Amino acid sequence: MLHGNIKTANRPSGEALGILTIVAALQVLPFSDIMAKYLSLSLPLIQVVWGRFFFHCIATGAYSAMLHGPSVLKPPLSIMLLSRSAALFAAVGLFYVTIHYLPLTTSLTLWFIEPFILTLMAAVFLKEKVSPLQWLAVLLGFVGVLVAMRPTLVDWHWAYLTGVLAGIFYALFLFLTHFIDTKTPAVVSVYHTGLAGCLIASLAVVPHWINPLPAQWLLLIATGIVAALAHLLIIKSFEGARASIIAPYTYTEIIMGAVLGYLVFADMPDVWVFVGLAIVIASGIALVRSKQHVGIDQDATGRAKPST
Q: How far apart are CA 133 and CA 22, in angstroms?
């Protein structure tokens, strides 16, 4: 999962480090996802979502307080900030539902619809100019998602829809980021955007709570902390290189996602998932490269911007 308030640098010397950092971050993030998928086999999904947000907020809140003082732990009251945080909660929650039923590789392919939805939102609501080449990339991106979903009566599963909805809500999250005060330090913004999910999940989990075993507690804690670590690395990557340079490399998340899915669950998506993924990645890269100036300067998949 990139989150907002990320300052980018124009120093060419920092681009290589920025690329290496984003690739490293997105090889770390799938570990959080695979732990969430594993936990969902024995714990209620809402409890897994709770662990993801609760321990994410604990980690980022502690880091924020250490860097900027405890006063930053109290978020400003804002409808826009609340809506943005709620959109992130919906995106992560729907993604966890998706990975519970579908392979991680397939779920990530559906998640990658985000940059195309974000382009549509920017064109409609921000009146951003979109070239014919960009519209073609958007269209091909949707085609790639449809290929991966294979919408037939034989292969259809309703979790395909939750995967697409997860990507749409993440696009909404990034869109709303455009209207958030950029003076807030990035790590503090990451903490703030996780608070709504933490509070909502803490209330929703009560009637479904199952006392976790010690090993499950460790996995719940690790799910949130690993995601937080990945998000912080992503922020660091954007401090060294422009988003347009880093964006295509965000698709490398699929590498570790596929490896972990196979090692832990023996998930091997069929050829159509890989064909669809190839179309989505090619379209996403073409979309990013064709943009000279983008109103919402985010990465192609967004998953790393502080929540996942």
A: 27
